[in-house]
């Protein structure tokens, strides 16, 4: 028999690998949430996932919104953004994946909808929720004096069966849209706000190299790909400066642990009425601007500020 409780009722949009392995079990097992309803474009997938977690498979998004207090997303960015705007307008709190939208204008619409409706909205920047990452970043902040840094995320994820058919990961932005948000978020948190994209290059095999400028004139580089035959995935972040060199050379924790930490914060935000968080929708919008400017640099379009870099500072 399925348990009955008074937890925060959360609906899940999506039924793919990430929904099955992270979102659904995380929501069903967390003491502050109850996985109440599931909607996907594939009814069979929704029913199968709902049966596994004592939830209800619904036929429409409107039906889902009518049964929940919050909505979690595990779908492509373009699908997420449009439904999330609708959910925010209906007063539902949001758990968003990165990037928060497929393009900057839609991301801006989503952030505006969240602000207007005064709902909580957290973004699943997986590594930021790991205790090891938080301790590392706290140490960097305490030491100070950092002059630059780098991030490398090298993977063969799009060569394996799990994500080989994930269309949005194969589109124009590729690795930039999928793992770029993680790299940019960590570099930003470690070195200060990213203010511009000085240079960017993408090979025909979706290998991205990005030169970023941070507040105070600090620079960093990010190298990203999902199409190299590398196992396990290489995730490296490093900073250097007056206090030497410090690095993280592995993925701290597990996605499931990070999701539990996100849900802890999510439930606390809603209970307290607080809306600000280091990984809230405004953070998602900031990272979306970095992605947008990187694409513009690669394509050679868009205005170039006097300093020579493409600005990502909000106007």
Short description:
The chain has 315 residues and is α/β, with parallel strands linked by helices.
Contiguous uncertain segments of 5+ residues: 1-5, 301-309
| Range of strand content | 15-25%
Characterize the largest beta sheet: strand count, sense, and whether it forms a barrel.
Answer: 7 strands, mixed
Q: Identify the overall geometry.
A: globular
Name of the level-1 CATH class of the largest domain: Alpha Beta
Beta strand count: 13
Tell me the span between the first and last alpha carbons. Answer: 54 Å
Commentary on this structure:
- GO terms for molecular function: nucleotide binding; oxidoreductase activity.
- Keywords: Oxidoreductase.
- Residues 8-123 form the Gfo/Idh/MocA-like oxidoreductase N-terminal domain.
- This is Dehydrogenase.
- It is a single chain.
- By secondary structure, the protein is of the alpha/beta class.
- It folds into 2 domains: 8-125 and 256-280, Rossmann fold (3-Layer(aba) Sandwich); 127-252 and 289-311, 2-Layer Sandwich (Dihydrodipicolinate Reductase, domain 2), CATH 3.30.360.10.
- It has 10 helices and 13 strands.
- The chain has helices at residues 17-29, 43-52, 61-65, 77-89, 104-117, 131-143, 175-178, 180-191, 255-272, 281-299, and strands at 8-13, 33-39, 56-57, 70-73, 93-96, 121-123, 146-154, 194-202, 208-214, 219-225, 234-241, 244-248, 310-311.
- The strands form 2 sheets. A 7-stranded mixed beta sheet has the order 12-11-7-10-9-8-13.
- Residues 1-5 and 301-309 have low confidence and may be disordered.
